[in-house]
Design a protein that fits this description.
seven-stranded antiparallel beta sheet; CV3147-like fold; 2 domains; CV3147-like; alpha+beta; homodimer; four-stranded antiparallel beta sheet; 25% strand
């Protein structure tokens, strides 16, 4: 058990945005919300999953929809607690804490706002270990946990409760509601007890986010050392460095769809990388060959500062690095690949683990 | 207080379909559902609004969406009671009866199914005195009653509760949910007490439907006498007789949109009527001049049998009569016209009362 202070929040927002693989919201917006909350209500207690009781009851809170919308539709602030408390009251259970659904600049911070405001602990876990665009793309889903009852609200004050026959129907009905609410909404779903968290969550993601953020915000190291440290902390790979030469993007059906084209710089000159995204980065190809595939994490960062770049912030001329991390093993199972693999998203490619793609790519250059 | 038996149900289904002005569902499907229910659970008690207590609590149940979908997606039967009971439980109140939201072949019958199955009385009133396509088009809305909390379900078992900031948001969020559920859903909304029913409902609509149905199903009268009797019972007008020569129709956004063109027969030869609809018939024009305008009721019936024809049953070659009835005075107020007048539906015409349009039309032919 420990408390999250302002420095911790700054680090978590940045690190979670890195793990958000382009989605999960802008870390600047996210940290402003959380900093305001802890300034007003005091620091938030972080508990590891081992510290919670099996029988206690927990609810996550998250933003749903197209992250780009948040830039224009800034949260009012009361909607996170409203959706969280609504679900708790509906279930008629005492809620003992909250946790993030996914990593991301905003979605790592919303539960901190809720925790601060209600004086509840934050649990050091999430349901993805990264960010994904749809509601059933959660490790709890892989273990058969129901996404509903769920609560959904908007900044205007409309609120709903859903109970669906399966988690894909949760996604379908929540998605059309989100689109009608203005392409973004706040949701609380996958209510669960401590035992389920211990079994199905991705553990220590808040702490990992914090460590990643600390490296990225480090100012005493030179560029190469900092990059190496980031690789070490994340167990990741540096795949490419280059300059964005094209971004195609569309907000449709409550998602940001698109792709970004990057022309190589330095040792990558004469190569080109394309990263395809749906809120999150999903497939990266170099000169037409896949080099990282969902569910493995594809993270784009600023070439020099290593600050994560969300998909809505991609723009022509930006110089960036493409990094990648192996997904949690839960995602590399058969059901995991069926749920979040490349074919689910419509890409005509089979999943191959990042480690193998890296070796293949190395062999090409021997 | 009286009981509704099989004959009453046959009459109500037909009469309510007449008042449904083309919407509210097919009376054959509706009556089959209600007859099955009273065969299994016994006849349903009908109470007039004067017979209920001010403090008792009542909930309507209705189908929402494109009525044409019902033909392919027949109700399973448990969804009416599910949505009704869900809302009751959510509100934590004992529900003392039910009533229809609107007149219509199906929407007059769904509350009878609920009443039979749960042993509750049906109240002799509704919220429209006809049918309209959107959820805020209810006399309770005109008096400031909230449509929510509402419950919504589908035949698969998905269910939701909504609380919205106003009744237009109820319509917006319920509509997208309905579309995603397959273009039709079951809803319970406008929960209210006896005092609100006395103040805001359209009274005796079930009895009026029954009387209309009795005339239409009458076999002892000749055609002219039967038509005159229908005009007398409904305080209506016979506007036109002819043959359908064109139907344009589209199911979009959870509605049936379209228009039907009718070439005159007998004394109306050489004239042409076009009726525009959105689930319900909304504007009728004869040779380019409006002859009946929403909220007044435009009812199309079979030329000989006078059986009501719902918009989804309109087809080339059918010989029909166009009749019209003045709307309840609640709809002819400023707020009424704002809510359900022709301009709300996008027609470039101002509302004129049917009685005046009939006089105008008569003067044209003097």
């Amino acid at each position: 058990m420990r408390y999250l202070d302002e420095q911790a929040i700054e680090n978590i927002a940045i690190g979670a945005a890195f793990l958000g693989t382009g989605g999960g919201g802008d870390p600047y917006i996210g940290k402003m919300m959380a900093l305001t909350a802890i300034k007003k209500y005091g620091p938030v207690q972080l508990l590891s999953p081992e510290e919670i009781s099996d029988d206690d009851f927990f609810i996550p809170a998250a933003m749903m929809g197209a992250p780009s919308v948040l830039i224009e539709k800034f949260p009012k602030g009361d909607e996170f607690v409203r959706v969280f408390e609504k679900l708790g009251r509906y279930l008629g259970k005492e809620v003992k804490g909250t946790f993030p659904m996914e990593a991301g600049g905003v979605n790592s911070m919303i539960p901190i706002v809720v925790a601060a405001q209600l004086g509840l602990p934050l649990i050091d876990c999430d349901g993805m270990g990264r960010a994904f665009p749809e509601l059933q793309m959660v490790t709890f889903h892989l273990d058969g946990v129901s996404a509903t009852p769920m609560a959904i609200t908007d900044e205007k004050g409309n609120i709903g409760i859903m109970e669906t026959i399966d988690n894909k129907w949760t996604e379908r009905l929540a998605r059309v509601t989100t689109v009608e609410m203005g392409a973004s909404s706040l949701v609380s779903l996958y209510p669960c007890d401590g035992a389920q968290i211990k079994q199905s969550s991705i553990k220590n993601i808040v702490t990992l986010s914090e460590e990643i953020g600390k490296v990225i915000r480090e100012t005493s190291l030179d560029e190469a050392d900092k990059l190496q440290k980031l690789i070490d902390v994340t167990h990741g790979y540096h795949l490419f460095e280059g300059k964005i030469i094209d971004v195609v993007r569309e907000t449709r059906a409550g998602f940001n769809f698109g792709r970004v084209k990057i022309a190589g710089l330095n040792k990558d000159t004469n190569s080109e990388v394309i990263v395809h995204f749906q809120n999150e980065n999903l497939v990266a190809e170099k000169n037409g060959e896949p080099i990282a595939i969902t569910p493995d994490l594809i993270c784009m960062v600023d070439l020099e500062t290593l600050m994560p770049i969300t998909t809505e912030a991609l723009k022509y001329g930006k110089r960036i690095r493409v990094m990648a991390l192996p997904a949690d093993k839960a995602w590399r199972t058969e059901k995991g690949i069926e749920t979040v693999g490349p074919r689910y998203f419509g890409y005509e490619v089979d999943f191959e683990p990042l480690e193998e793609l890296v070796q293949k790519e190395e062999r090409r250059h021997v």
